[in-house]
Amino acid sequence: MQSRSVLTTISTMSVRTDQIRLRLREEMTRLRYSVRGLARDMAWGPSRLDKILSGRTELTIEDLEAICAQLRLSLTEVVRDHGLEFCADMTPTELRLLIRLRELTPVEHDAILKVLHIKRPATPERYATPQKKSIFGKPRS
Q: Is this structure's pTM higher than 0.85?
C-alpha cells in the first residue's frame, strides 16, 4: 500500500514538472525568447537550458528560480495551474473550494447559494475570460 502511494506521488510530481516546463516555454514565446537567447541572457549554455526545458535534465529549484528571474515571473505564478493567475491572493484551501464549487451539479450549486443566502442572477452569468492584451498601446481586434 505504501509503495503505491509513493508511485502516485512521483507520477503527480512528474506531471506537475511537465506543466511547469510548459508554462516556462509559453512565457518564453510570449516574450519572444528563443532557448538560445534566454540562455545567452542568463549566461548559460543553450544546451543546458534546452535539456532542462525538454525534461532530459531534472528541473531544480535553483534552475527554476534563475529562469523565472530572467522571465520576470514569480515562482508561485509558474507552479500555479495555468489560467488561475487571478487566484494569486487565495489560500490553497480557498482555491480547492473554488475548484470544488465549479464541479458541482446545478442542483448542488443552487443548494449552496441558498445556504449562503445568495440569490441567483436573473440573467445568465458570464465567465471570466482573459482580456486581449494591447500591443504598444493599440487595442487588439
A: no
